[in-house]
Design goal:
Structural class: alpha/beta
Largest sheet: 6 strands, mixed
Keywords: Hydrolase, Metal-binding, Zinc
Number of helices: 7
CATH class: Alpha Beta
Pfam families: Lactamase_B
Cofactor: Zn(2+)
Organism: Peribacillus muralis
Low-confidence stretches: none
Number of strands: 14
CATH topology: Metallo-beta-lactamase, Chain A
Strand order of the largest sheet: 1-2-3-4-5-6
Helix content: 10-25%
CATH architecture: 4-Layer Sandwich
CATH superfamily: Ribonuclease Z/Hydroxyacylglutathione hydrolase-like
Radius of gyration: 16 Å
GO molecular function: hydrolase activity; metal ion binding
Length: 208
């Protein structure tokens, strides 16, 4: 399994294109759909699905453009199903009051922790609320790749001052769901550089 990090938009939100042969999964298409499409075309990849870690505006900005272009389904947790349609919930109303984001509903709703298989890709889905109520993390167990959204960053954790956020819930999510993963698990955060579970155990000041 290969991966590419593509920072997008004014907040440089990380979109990830994860590929296995010619097939790929797109994680958090936050903005600038043309950049995502160009990369996929250059690599001659075939998207199978879009995985959303959560529904804040900077993670969904290119969702419909990518979904329509490739005719692929999008996955999102049920607690944020309404956020795609509501600019006040997804935060775009505050950032872009003249052009708030209203996306089509997600094609597949994640209702609980489960194993998700799409083509040759298999992910364990962890419910990791705290940054937002429907935040999830996708873990490719065999490859030890974790897509954590805005839950865990290199040297930091997600903010908790937005709708449905809670510092206590966030730290509990990290402590019970993410830190028990193998130390060599590579963490792909929603912003900033990749890291590992071991590095965050040793050096993340928010987790001490």
């Amino acid at each position: 399994m290969k991966w590419t990090q593509i920072p997008l938009g004014p907040l440089q939100t990380n979109c990830y294109v994860v590929s296995d042969g010619n097939d790929c999964i797109i994680v958090d298409p936050g903005e600038e759909p043309q950049k995502i499409i160009q990369y996929i075309q250059t690599k001659k990849l075939k998207p199978l699905a879009i995985l959303l870690t959560h529904a804040h505006f900077d993670h969904i900005g290119a969702l419909d453009a990518i979904r329509d272009h490739y005719e692929v389904p999008a996955y999102l947790h049920e607690k944020e199903a309404k956020w795609l349609l509501d600019p006040a919930l997804n935060g775009s109303l505050n950032w872009f009051p003249e052009n708030p984001m209203r996306m089509k509903p997600a094609d597949h709703i994640i209702a609980n922790e489960q194993k998700l298989t799409i083509g040759g890709f298999t992910f364990d889905i962890f419910e990791t609320p705290g940054h937002s109520p429907g935040s999830v993390s996708y873990f490719a167990r065999d490859e030890r790749l974790l897509f954590s959204g805005d839950v865990l960053f290199q040297g930091s954790v997600g903010r908790t001052d937005l709708i449905g956020g809670s510092e206590q819930v966030l730290l509990n999510s990290i402590d019970t769901k993410l830190l028990p993963l193998p130390d060599d698990t590579i963490v792909f955060p929603g912003h900033g550089p990749v890291t590992t579970i071991l590095d965050e155990k040793n050096a993340n000041p928010f987790l001490r």
